[in-house]
Specification:
The complex is a heterodimer of chains A (321) and B (685).
Chain A (H helix, E strand, L loop, with lengths): L3 H30 L4 H6 L5 H11 L5 H13 L5 E2 L4 E2 L1 H35 L4 H14 L3 H15 L15 H35 L2 H8 L4 H38 L5 H10 L3 H29 L1 H7 L2
Antiparallel strand pairs in A: 1-2
Helix pairs in contact in A: 1-12, 5-6, 5-8, 5-10, 5-11, 5-12, 6-8, 7-8, 7-10, 8-10, 9-10, 10-11, 10-12, 11-12, 12-13
Chain B lengths: L2 H7 L3 E12 L2 E13 L4 E5 L6 H8 L7 E10 L2 E2 L5 H10 L1 E4 L3 H4 L6 H11 L4 H14 L5 H6 L7 H14 L4 E5 L7 H18 L2 E5 L3 H7 L2 E6 L2 E7 H6 L4 H9 L39 H5 L5 E2 L5 E2 L32 E12 L3 E13 L4 E5 L6 H9 L9 E4 L2 E3 L8 H6 E4 L3 H4 L6 H13 L4 H13 L16 H12 L6 E5 L7 H18 L2 E5 L3 H7 L2 E6 L2 E7 H6 L4 H9 L40 H4 L4 E3 L5 E3 L24
Parallel strand pairs in B: 3-8, 3-9, 6-7, 7-8, 15-20, 15-21, 18-19, 19-20
Antiparallel strand pairs in B: 1-2, 1-4, 4-5, 9-10, 10-12, 11-12, 13-14, 13-16, 16-17, 21-22, 22-24, 23-24
The chains are: A mainly alpha (321), B alpha/beta (685).
The complex binds adenosine-5'-diphosphate, iron/sulfur cluster (2 copies) and magnesium ion.
């Protein structure tokens, strides 16, 4: 690709791969350092020494770490994420399934929070200083500080237990259609929506206020353009660039919050997978899970960067140099 | 009267007792009170006054785009006969689309950064009913009319890909596209270079005649107003204090404020000529003066009566008015500030120059093995107590030269910088402390130079410690000494930059530069961000400090008035080369380099007289690929032979030390027009 954007993409991709590799090293080292004797750690003090040795061999603990690392990475590159000790089965299908579920949840979260947050921010900005702005600002600020587990429990109580509007469990029956799935996902999505809403709304508000008071907006108004055109073509386009960056950065935060939410709602996503793998000392699963989360985060950032650059011609031009 | 009649016979703008208030924390601040003025069709009206006087508010109010906390509290604003306060949403939009257009100060901000110029241009025509492709065609045509040579390329560009001057042309094209009855220009050239400023002013002047639009030209640059406008209004603290035909008003002001502003302007004189005066004090906060004359606290003619009776608008001649009880005594206005001492530099065979630059060049490497010579073979000296003015369009290498002298950029091998006879390393990091102390800088924008988080005391104190190496109790007394030298009071010590006015911030910057008894100070556009009244105070301060301490200045400015007022010698740069250097008077009065001639002809003067403007065709060539022979040959109006394109001219030096780099013999070079000083307003020393 010869265009500046292509080169930028290549460079960022390379950087992402490097990051991913670093994550893999850290994850691997973490798993190596923690227990001195993984077989013993997994099987407990009462287990038979032969069983421990066999498991160590299976886990590769008897081989030099560098060799183990390379065979792990090598396997991974071929799509083999290793063998789960707990399930005595390949890790890959579990991780794949969990990732898909988490993606659905994250998708629902952003589907709800982005329009809400951006909308609230823009409305607040258009009415800056008026009561509606104060209400929105105070609300979003106070919502941001509610921990997910508090809001999750409150939401469960209200919507699932008392009102019975939404199903309590996040897991849907097998073969359920998208609508049913969505119904199951709304409740688990809400705690993170609540937290993210504030961030996005504040960013959108600040960006819009800045764009509104800019000379180019004044120029657009003074061209006699209809207010709607001024808003969509001139204000929002410039206002939302910083917001998109924030949304992308919050993806990482959303993933952190997933662990809490998925556990509470007993949803078999990647957060839950990592947590139970850690509890079961299922190292292969744990490593693959964390690595997947890392990869997911990196991809999200990459996409956000690309969008930011595409929306901002000045950045795009700087790429050319 | 039918609609068309209203459109053609009513004035382009009529303000009738217009008052505007901003609500701040529940209180109404009156920023405009009872402003009345009329602009006839095709007339150019200048509105001048210090910043904060309400000029922009006038422009915003008459288009109904005041900030959300502002409102018209009484009176009327009529554009092309229609009272803007009475227009409904649709009519208001129609007025904006057709009758009035505005050009803002900073063209970079007035254009939407994420849309192409073409899109933004087309919009104007679409709103007037053109189809997409027609709008595009008309947009291109319009760009052609503002003398943009390559409209198609500009249409496809994003704003940041264009130079400031080009951006301002685009904004003007967008404004004129609707053929408005009234064109408002709010400080349209404040951010631009002298030559570009002159170009833009010329353009506005020609277009005004082509389009027949009335112009409201808002500026604190009196000379620019004088060169463009038929009539002028002077705004002070939200009141129109004087009004009249431009020439008469500037030649014979009938209000002490106008007279004061004019005395702040560096004009015809050279260093050692008439000293600048200034207007002491600050404009009052809106609404703080409820009785008598608003100018009384700063007025040199103030009488008891002024504090009690508010002066009405007195009729002081045909079409002239002044809000001063003593408008007939303005000629007696005393000097309001002490004239600063003027230093004569030490010269002579026994005096060692404080700064010697020998064969300084600076080459930047670009990607792709390309090179830019930002500076080429500059040799010059600076005597103790001398001021060297440095002029040239942007991109001519002024700032590069300053950076090399300061050691912020390293010159190429082969060059030499000596301070007081001792050669110093190229990089500031390798220079001994003495050498670093010796050369300091004052920037154009004190905001970016001063750390906002620190107090004045900290800012000056740190310079005293770091540079002068003074600590302990002596540090305190040194800070106070500096503070006094720049006319600040200890009350300002705990203040942070944002609590200070622009002028005070620049004083802090000056104090910092003087902290360690420097030998040379580079002043990079030290006053171009300031009002004339503040500028004159800072310029006087610089003169005074020079006389006191024998410090030398390298003064970079695009304001030729400022340069000639302060400089002993002037150097003219073009494309990284020194084209001319010599005593200020010789350079200005000539014979001088064809480039200098063009620069000088571009500068507007407050008397409104502008000699024959010498237009430089085309853009400055790229320094990556400079023209062969004389680098100025692609734009030189006096180019005379093949030799200009083939051979770089040598420096021809006369016995006054005036050197010119041109193949033309001296007697064929141009001479400056004589600038007639307007002695009526010149303050008696
Ligand atoms: N939105 C605002 N709210 C409160 N005060 C303002 C606002 N805008 C301008 N002002 C004040 O109004 C006065 C006039 O400002 P302005 O019209 O911008 O003057 P100028 O253009 O002459 O510099 C100043 O005192 C300024 O501080
Ligand atoms: S009325 Fe008095 S205070 Fe006001 S400008 Fe005239 S002389 Fe000065
Ligand atoms: S050498 Fe020729 S081109 Fe250069 S300035 Fe002189 S006349 Fe003009
Ligand atoms: Mg203004």
């Amino acid at each position: 690709m010869g265009s500046p954007f292509g080169r930028f993409l290549l460079r960022r991709l390379g950087l992402s791969l490097l990051t991913l590799w670093l994550v893999s090293v850290v994850v691997f080292l973490g798993a190596q350092v923690l227990p001195g004797d993984p077989g013993r750690a997994v099987l407990g003090p009462l287990a038979d020494a032969r069983a421990v040795a066999a498991l160590n061999k299976e886990l590769g603990a008897d081989r030099p770490p560098v060799e183990v690392y390379f065979s792990w990475v090598g396997g991974m590159l071929q799509g083999d994420l290793g063998q789960s000790y707990a399930y005595r089965a390949p890790v890959a299908p579990f991780v794949g399934d969990a990732l898909l579920k988490s993606l659905k949840l994250v998708g629902v979260i952003f589907l709800i929070v982005v329009p809400l947050g951006v909308g609230a921010g823009v409305i607040a900005a258009l009415n800056a200083g008026k009561p509606i702005d104060r209400i929105l600002s105070v609300t979003s600020l106070s919502l941001t500080v509610i921990p997910e587990f508090v809001s999750a429990i409150a939401l469960i109580l209200v919507f699932a237990v008392i009102l019975r509007w939404l199903p309590l469990s996040a897991s849907w029956p097998t073969g359920a259609g998208p609508l049913t799935q969505l119904q199951h996902l709304i409740l688990p999505a809400l705690p993170l929506v609540i937290v993210l809403f504030g961030y996005i709304a504040r960013m959108a508000r600040a960006g819009t206020i800045e764009a509104l008071s800019s000379d180019y907006t004044r120029t657009a108004i003074l061209k006699g353009l209809p207010w709607r055109t001024v808003l969509t073509r001139h204000v929002l386009r410039n206002a939302l660039v910083p917001t998109i960056t924030v949304i992308a950065a919050q993806t990482g935060y959303a993933l952190g919050g997933l662990v809490v939410v998925e556990t509470l709602f007993r949803y078999q996503g990647i957060g839950n997978l990592v947590l139970s793998a850690a509890k079961a000392k299922d190292f292969a699963m744990l490593q693959a899970g964390i690595l997947t989360i890392g990869a997911f985060f990196i991809v999200a950032t990459l996409i956000a960067d690309c969008i930011t650059v595409m929306l901002n011609p000045r950045l795009r031009a700087e790429l050319g140099r | 009267m039918s609609m068309t009649d209203t459109k053609t016979h009513s004035p382009a703008l009529e303000l009738e007792d217009l008052s505007v208030a901003y609500t701040v924390r529940g209180r109404d601040l009156p920023v405009l009170s009872n402003v009345s003025l009329t602009i006839q069709r095709g007339e150019a009206y200048g509105l001048v006054g210090e910043s904060g006087s309400g000029k922009s508010t006038v422009a915003l109010a008459l288009q109904r785009v005041l900030p959300s906390n502002g409102r018209i509290s009484s009176g009327h604003a009529r554009v092309a006969g229609k009272d803007v306060a009475e227009l409904g949403a649709t009519e208001l939009r129609r007025m904006r689309a057709k009758d009035v257009a505005m050009v803002f100060q900073d063209p970079g901000k007035a254009l939407n950064p994420s849309l192409t110029v073409g899109r933004q241009m087309a919009e104007v025509f679409e709103i007037l009913g053109s189809s997409g492709s027609e709008a595009k065609r008309r947009g291109e045509e319009m760009l052609g009319r503002v003398r943009i040579s390559d409209p198609a390329r500009v249409m496809a560009s994003f704003p940041h890909q264009l130079s400031g001057g080009m951006q301002q042309r685009v904004v003007i094209a967008m404004a004129l596209a609707k053929d408005p009855a009234l064109l408002i220009l709010d400080e349209p050239t404040t951010g631009l270079d002298a030559t570009i400023e002159a170009e833009v002013l010329d353009l506005v002047d020609t277009l005004r005649q082509e389009f027949g639009a009335a112009v409201l030209f808002i500026s604190h640059n009196l000379a620019a107003v004088a060169s463009l406008c038929n009539r002028v209004g002077v705004l002070y603290a939200g009141k129109l204090v004087e009004e009249g035909p431009a020439r008469e008003l500037f030649n014979d002001p009938r209000h002490p404020y106008t007279a004061g502003l004019l005395r702040c302007l560096p004009r015809a004189g050279f260093k050692g000529g008439a000293a600048l005066d200034n207007i002491p004090g600050f404009p009052p906060p809106p609404g703080s003066i409820t009785q008598g004359c608003v100018f009384a606290p700063r007025c040199g003619l103030v009488q008891e009566r002024c504090r009690v009776d508010e002066p009405p608008l007195y009729d002081v001649g045909t079409g002239r008015g002044s809000r001063c009880h003593f408008h007939d005594k303005v000629d007696d206005l005393p000097r309001m500030s002490e004239a600063p001492p003027v230093n004569t530099p030490e010269r002579g065979p026994n005096v060692e120059p404080v700064l010697k630059l020998k064969h300084l060049s600076k080459t930047y490497e670009l990607p792709g093995n390309r090179k830019v010579q930002a500076l080429r073979d500059v040799t010059l000296t600076l005597d103790p107590g001398e001021t060297l003015g440095l002029v040239g369009e942007s991109g001519s290498g002024k700032s590069t030269l300053a950076n090399l002298v300061l050691g912020l950029a390293e010159h190429d091998d082969g060059g030499r910088i000596s301070i007081d006879g001792t050669e110093v390393p190229a990089s500031v990091h390798q220079r001994p402390r003495e050498a670093i102390k010796a050369i300091q800088i004052i920037f154009q924008n004190p905001d970016s130079a001063l750390n906002r988080a620190h107090t004045v005391k900290h800012l000056i104190g740190r310079a005293v410690e770091k540079l002068a190496g003074i600590v302990g109790s002596e540090r305190e007394s040194r800070i106070r000494q500096l503070l006094e030298a720049v006319r600040l009071t200890p009350r300002q010590l705990p203040a942070k930059p944002r609590q200070l006015s622009g002028g005070m911030k620049q004083r802090v910057a000056v104090a910092r530069a003087f902290a360690a008894d420097p030998r040379v100070i580079v002043c990079d556009e030290p006053t171009s961000a300031l009002d004339v009244s503040v500028q004159s105070a800072i310029l006087n301060l610089l003169s005074e400090l020079q006389a006191e301490r024998q410090v030398s200045y390298i003064l970079i400015s695009h304001d030729l008035g400022v340069v000639r007022h302060l400089s002993d010698r002037i150097a003219v740069m073009y494309l990284g080369r020194l084209m001319e250097i010599g005593p200020a008077r010789s350079v200005i009065e000539g014979p001088h380099h064809p480039y200098t001639e063009a620069l000088l002809s571009a500068a507007p003067t407050v008397t409104g007289e502008r000699g024959e403007r010498i237009r430089l065709e085309g853009q400055i060539p790229s320094p990556i690929d400079p023209p062969t022979g004389c680098v100025f040959n692609t734009r030189c109006p006096r180019k005379f032979a093949k030799i200009c394109e083939t051979e770089e001219p040598p420096f021809a030096l006369d016995d006054e030390g005036h050197a010119i780099r041109c193949h033309l013999p001296r007697e064929k070079l141009g001479r400056g027009r004589r600038m007639e000083g307007v002695d009526v307003v010149e303050a008696g020393a």
